[in-house]
């Protein structure tokens, strides 16, 4: 096949600015955070860790970081437990009402986060759960669970349900089937699901904003509040921290794609974009 | 030889009338270190139906793709009607191509599919539609013009693909395993239709297939390919009856291969020693190698009486299998296991009860060939 | 999967003799145990809050109140126009990227995939912060425009609708690329070859074959991107001006500024219903696209 005709060269040429448009914003974040200047500029004037030191010396920012990690921890643990058990429970089974169950599991991805934020805000006030990171973590778990369910389900796709049944007919008990049949198969899906859950929680802003309290202000909420007044070096450092999380997630996902050779399948996972 | 029945089409860029001669001169295709096609020389005469026959990986499809212009050859030259087309893109080569699975445009009706080439040649609307429906009429689908490809059967899709490839009056037609997706019965019917169409149009065809029956049924000439090289070419009967190597003999059908040593070679005939089967007179194409064998097709072995003339020897019957139209007998003769095939209606003819079983064959049906494996 | 692994662990007690009737019973009970946690969790922490929200929306004549609020109407119009423009830009740019991915070799494709996924993994505030840095008066974009002599003084690129759309398109691009890419890869390569053999130039191949056959991907991408667009909340605040507030911002305004819960709930229900209808259409489009491929 001829690969270099003028049209394809034109396409490649036109696509360069589009790819730059995708990359540049993320690429500048770390240099901006290490900029040796009191002002936020790019390109940086020199390299300095002053802003990083300032960030970690500021109680308001470090407690925001702690809050974010706590909420992500809650979201990952709950998301992994619920998402994985649901995927295994539904694997290879058809029953009346199954589409409704799957629909319910995936529904949190479709509802706009601002709507969920409002609903949780009212709900947690009504049950008297305010002023701590727990309701925020629970809310994040609600939107993180479908991701774990989907990645686990994807890794189960190659496992023949008949095999599991044959394991059971050979006398394997439910727990040993879980451990010896399911766990090895779902492990990659579980890891990537946990990563998704962590990333969803650490970046989530809207729900955390509605449910914030002095002791429970997450990193994105702190950034959102500050950014409306000024672009500060501490926001830049916080962004750089989140970008490193994103990079790890991205690299693991690319490795996953490379291993599976199915680039298209896994991606349009999420309707629940954090907007 | 431009006796095209399909209405006058666009004149090729050279200005001369299309003859449809395709010529490959020492054409090679390399992918890095891998040689897919190795210095191939091949000519398709105007009006000739030439089949590239070979197993997958033999380079036959690559060869066709290079003629069509979809693959660039790495050495040699491709000529159409005497002029090199090496630098021409596919759209300027004026060749009709029918692909495996037809590659019909799924979003266009049958008529729009056929119109496509004329639209690309800026033929005005009314004339375009008329010529396209004439082409569909010719393949018996005049009433199906409005249907989308998925509403047509496999055979109908095949016909649309043919009409689409012929409507712009190409210099030649290239067919890449066009019948692979059809069932046996439809395949045989389409083979006849394509052959009839090709004869009435007088168009040259380069046909690619791995199915030796199809090649036998359709071709004026079969070019057998293996590992990017031509191993034998000639009219179907000749290639079938007089293979030059045991590989060709086996690839083209069942055969009995009896190792032999040459006693005497004389032009087209040779005398060979078949070991336990004695001396025999066989056909010789002059191929030379280290080891030799004689190939006799199972249908050329006959039950005979001991007294009859020609080659033959005593045999014992091991088993018989009814295959419907024919019966296959397994025999032991002179230390060799042989297959003999005869029509079911002739079953047992030539076997004389209470006498020793005797098999024989005509000298011109036994072929001396080179043992490669 | 080796048989040894399956047969390895020996069962204990009553479970051990596997018989035709005991196996299905055990399987069924195990299956409900596995589904129970997520169902309980979603009922308590997802359906109940949403139910309460819907309940609250019917109090105090909320729907009528919010729909008569000119600010709400403005936000609705903003939401529709901003989402529409973002969707069109996103789909066009997404198509370009999908074409490049489609035509790229294996190694290039993986690298470019990573580039496309980068904004997907980056948090919304990080992206908006980066765009604010780039688009501010002394930012890189203005420096570039001044550098090539397009302008002498900085152009206000931030805190306006342009900035909102830039920020949104950047977030949305990955969601457009993948549906289009997958519809492109489902096109049989031989169709392009056939068109070329029939006399088509590259431009005609694209216009008459590739583009029409990727329409299912385009409509899926467009719908998905539009659905996500309608829920944007952070970007209009960080990148936009006062006149660029969208429906999500209006929900926030009712809830946290006016402390009018029923009004906020009514707006939230309106947004959810809108999105649900679009999601239903989206799934139908996906299904239709799938059927097309099967044939």
Automatic annotation (TrEMBL), chain A:
Location of this chain's protein in the cell: Cell inner membrane; Cell membrane
Keyword Nuclease: no
Topology in membrane: Multi-pass membrane protein
Chain ranges of the ABC transmembrane type-1 domain: 65-256
Any Gene Ontology CC annotation: plasma membrane
Alphabetized UniProt keyword annotations: Cell inner membrane, Cell membrane, Membrane, Transmembrane, Transmembrane helix, Transport
Domain of life of the source: Bacteria
A single BP term in Gene Ontology: transmembrane transport
Acyltransferase as UniProt keyword: no
Transmembrane segments: 12-34, 69-90, 102-124, 130-150, 181-202, 235-258
Cross-referenced SUPFAM superfamilies: MetI-like (SSF161098)
Main location: membrane
Family: Belongs to the binding-protein-dependent transport system permease family.
Protein name: Putative spermidine/putrescine transport system permease protein
Species this protein is from: Arthrobacter oryzae
UniProtKB/TrEMBL annotation, chain B:
Domain ABC transporter: from-to ranges: 22-252
Chain coiled-coil ranges: none
Entry's Gene Ontology cellular component terms: ATP-binding cassette (ABC) transporter complex
UniProt-listed Enzyme Commission number(s): 7.6.2.9
Segments passing through the bilayer: none
SUPFAM superfamilies, A to Z: MOP-like, P-loop containing nucleoside triphosphate hydrolases
Entry keyword annotation includes Nucleotide-binding: yes
Gene3D superfamilies attached to this UniProt entry: 2.40.50.100, P-loop containing nucleotide triphosphate hydrolases (3.40.50.300)
Keywords of the record: ATP-binding, Nucleotide-binding, Transport
SMART domains cross-referenced by the UniProt entry: AAA (SM00382)
Class of the enzyme per the UniProt entry, highest EC level: translocase
Domain of life: Bacteria
Name of this chain's protein: ABC-type quaternary amine transporter
Automatic annotation (TrEMBL), chain C:
Organism per entry: Arthrobacter oryzae
Primary localization class, coarse: membrane
Location within or outside the cell: Cell membrane
Name the UniProt record assigns to this protein: Putative spermidine/putrescine transport system permease protein
Keyword check for Magnesium: no
Annotated TM spans: 31-51, 71-98, 110-134, 162-181, 217-241, 261-282
GO cellular component terms, semicolon-separated: plasma membrane
Family: Belongs to the binding-protein-dependent transport system permease family. CysTW subfamily.
Protein origin, superkingdom: Bacteria
CDD domains: TM_PBP2 (cd06261)
Statement: the UniProt record of this protein carries the keyword Cell membrane: yes
One GO process term, biological-process aspect: transmembrane transport
ABC transmembrane type-1 domain ranges (all copies): 76-282
Region described as Disordered: 1-25
InterPro entries in alphabetical order: MetI-like, MetI-like_sf
Membrane topology qualifier: Multi-pass membrane protein
Keywords assigned by UniProt, alphabetized: Cell membrane, Membrane, Transmembrane, Transmembrane helix, Transport
């Amino acid at each position: 096949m001829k690969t270099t005709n003028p049209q394809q060269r034109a396409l490649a040429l036109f696509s360069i600015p589009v790819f730059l448009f995708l990359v540049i914003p993320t690429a500048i974040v770390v240099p901006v955070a290490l900029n040796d200047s009191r002002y936020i500029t790019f390109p940086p004037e020199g390299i300095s860790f002053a802003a990083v030191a300032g960030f970690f010396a500021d109680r308001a920012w470090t407690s925001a970081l702690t809050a974010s990690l706590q909420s992500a921890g809650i979201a990952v643990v709950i998301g992994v437990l619920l998402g994985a058990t649901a995927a295994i429970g539904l694997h290879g089974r058809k029953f009346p009402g199954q589409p409704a169950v799957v629909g319910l599991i995936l529904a949190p991805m479709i509802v706009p986060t601002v709507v969920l934020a409002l609903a949780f805000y009212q709900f947690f006030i009504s049950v008297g759960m305010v002023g701590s990171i727990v309701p925020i973590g629970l809310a994040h778990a609600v939107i993180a669970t479908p991701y774990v369910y989907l990645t686990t389900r994807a890794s189960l796709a190659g496992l023949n349900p008949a095999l599991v049944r044959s394991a059971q007919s050979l006398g394997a008990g439910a727990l040993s089937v879980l451990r010896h049949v399911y766990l090895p198969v779902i492990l990659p899906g579980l890891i990537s699901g946990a990563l998704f859950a962590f990333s969803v929680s650490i970046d989530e802003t809207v729900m955390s904003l509605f449910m914030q309290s002095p002791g429970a202000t997450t990193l994105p909420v702190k950034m959102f509040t500050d950014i409306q007044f000024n672009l500060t070096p501490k926001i830049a450092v916080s962004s750089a921290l989140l970008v490193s999380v994103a990079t790890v997630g991205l690299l693991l996902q690319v490795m996953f794609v490379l291993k599976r050779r199915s680039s298209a399948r896994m991606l349009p996972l999420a309707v629940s974009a954090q907007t | 030889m431009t006796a095209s029945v399909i209405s006058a089409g666009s004149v090729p860029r050279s200005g001369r009338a299309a003859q449809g001669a395709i010529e490959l001169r020492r054409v090679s295709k390399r992918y890095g270190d891998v040689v897919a096609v190795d210095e191939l020389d091949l000519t398709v005469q105007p009006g000739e139906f030439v089949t590239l026959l070979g197993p997958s990986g033999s380079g036959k499809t690559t060869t066709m793709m290079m003629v069509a212009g979809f693959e660039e050859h790495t050495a040699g030259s491709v000529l159409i009607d005497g002029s090199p087309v090496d630098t021409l893109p596919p759209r300027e080569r004026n060749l009709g191509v029918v692909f495996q699975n037809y590659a019909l445009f799924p979003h266009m009706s049958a008529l729009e599919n056929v119109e496509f080439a004329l639209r690309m040649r800026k033929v005005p609307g009314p004339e375009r539609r008329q010529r396209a429906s004439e082409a569909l009429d010719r393949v018996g689908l005049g009433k199906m013009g409005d249907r989308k490809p998925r509403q047509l059967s496999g055979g109908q899709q095949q016909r649309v693909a043919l009409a689409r490839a012929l409507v712009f009056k190409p210099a030649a037609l290239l067919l890449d395993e066009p019948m692979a997706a059809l069932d046996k019965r439809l395949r045989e019917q389409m083979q006849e239709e394509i052959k009839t169409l090709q004869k009435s149009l007088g168009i040259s065809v380069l046909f690619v297939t791995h199915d030796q029956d199809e090649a036998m049924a359709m071709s004026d000439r079969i070019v057998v390919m293996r590992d990017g090289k031509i191993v034998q070419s000639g009219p179907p009967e000749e290639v079938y009856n007089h293979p030059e190597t045991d590989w060709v003999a086996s690839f083209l059908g069942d055969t009995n291969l009896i190792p032999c040593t040459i006693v005497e070679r004389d032009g087209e005939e040779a005398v060979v020693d078949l070991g336990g089967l004695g001396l025999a007179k066989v056909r010789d194409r002059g191929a030379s190698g280290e080891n030799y064998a004689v190939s006799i097709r199972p249908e050329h072995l006959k039950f005979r009486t001991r007294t009859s003339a020609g080659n033959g020897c005593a045999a014992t019957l091991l088993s018989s299998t009814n295959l419907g139209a024919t019966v296959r007998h397994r025999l032991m003769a002179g230390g060799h296991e042989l297959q003999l095939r005869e029509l079911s209606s002739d079953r047992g003819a030539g076997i004389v009860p209470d006498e020793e079983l005797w098999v024989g064959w005509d000298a011109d049906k036994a072929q001396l060939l080179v043992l490669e494996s | 999967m080796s048989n040894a692994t399956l047969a390895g662990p020996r069962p204990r007690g009553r479970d051990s003799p596997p018989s035709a009737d005991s196996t299905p019973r055990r399987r069924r009970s195990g299956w409900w145990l596995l589904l129970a946690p997520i169902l309980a969790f979603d009922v308590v922490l997802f359906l109940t809050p949403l139910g309460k929200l819907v309940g609250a929306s019917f109090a105090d004549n909320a729907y009528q109140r919010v729909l008569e609020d000119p600010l709400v109407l403005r936000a609705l119009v903003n939401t529709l126009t901003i989402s529409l423009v973002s969707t069109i830009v996103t789909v066009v740019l997404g198509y370009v990227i999908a074409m490049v991915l489609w035509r790229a070799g294996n190694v290039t494709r993986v690298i470019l995939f990573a580039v496309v996924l980068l904004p997907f993994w980056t948090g919304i505030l990080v992206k908006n912060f980066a765009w604010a840095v780039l688009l501010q008066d002394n930012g890189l974009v203005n420096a570039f425009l001044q550098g090539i002599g397009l302008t002498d003084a900085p152009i206000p690129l931030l805190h306006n609708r342009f900035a909102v759309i830039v920020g949104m398109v950047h977030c949305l691009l990955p969601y457009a690329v993948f549906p289009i890419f997958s519809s492109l890869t489902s096109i049989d390569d031989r169709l392009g070859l056939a068109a070329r053999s029939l006399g088509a130039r590259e431009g005609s191949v694209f216009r008459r074959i590739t583009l029409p056959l990727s329409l299912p991907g385009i409509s899926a991408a467009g719908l998905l991107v539009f659905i996500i667009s309608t829920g944007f909340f952070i970007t209009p605040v960080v990148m936009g001006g006062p006149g660029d507030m969208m429906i999500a911002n209006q929900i926030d305004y009712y809830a946290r500024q006016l402390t009018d819960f029923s009004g906020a709930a009514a707006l939230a229900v309106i947004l959810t219903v809108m999105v649900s209808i679009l999601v239903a259409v989206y799934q139908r489009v996906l299904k239709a696209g799938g059927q097309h491929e099967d044939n």
